[in-house]
Amino acid sequence: MSRRSPPLDEVFQRVIHYLGVPALAKYIAELEKEVTRAQAAYSQEREKRLHAQQSLAHTQRALQETLQQLNDLRGKKERERLARERARTAAEKIKERKLRRRFLKYFGTEEPTSTVGLTPRYQEVKSPCDSLPHGTF
């Protein structure tokens, strides 16, 4: 046979009988104060946790945004570096072609690309004997 707790009404009746109404009222007031303090502490702790969670979420969002900006900046810097490299390569190729053309023109191994502004070295070279009459040296 298991023993059950008495109903609450019976418990309250016994407490009132043993303590009396004034002592019971004081006890109830103390219990109410204790409950209020516990609720306030619980609410305060809950607020702290909620604030910490919000702060953590905000920090995570800020970190993600910062990482995205950093990745965007890295990508931008990489694109700029590649553009500079391509521009430098193109400029070097142009310079190289110009130098090659100058070299070939200087040594006369390349036909000029246009006939405008030909210098005497590209015109037919006449030997000194060609200007003298035949038979004279």
Name some characteristics of this structure.
single chain, 137 residues, mainly alpha, 2 helices, 72% helix, rod-shaped
SSE map:
Blueprint: H1 8-19, H2 21-106
Helix pairs in contact: 1-2
How would you portray this structure in words?
The protein has one domain. The protein is rod-shaped, with a radius of gyration of 51 Å. Helices cover about 70% and strands about 0% of the residues. With about 140 residues, it is mainly α. The chain has helices spanning about 10-20, 20-105. Keywords: Coiled coil.
**Mean pLDDT over all positions:** 80
Uncertain stretches? none
Q: Would you list the SSEs in sequence order as H and E?
A: HH
Whole-angstrom Rg: 51 Å
Bulk shape: rod-shaped
Largest sheet: none
- Structural class call reads mainly alpha
Strand content: under 5%
Give the tally of structural domains: 1
Distance between the termini: 154 Å
Quickly count the helices. Answer: 2
Helix content: over 70%
Secondary structure: number of strands:
0
Coiled coil: 28-97
Keywords: Coiled coil
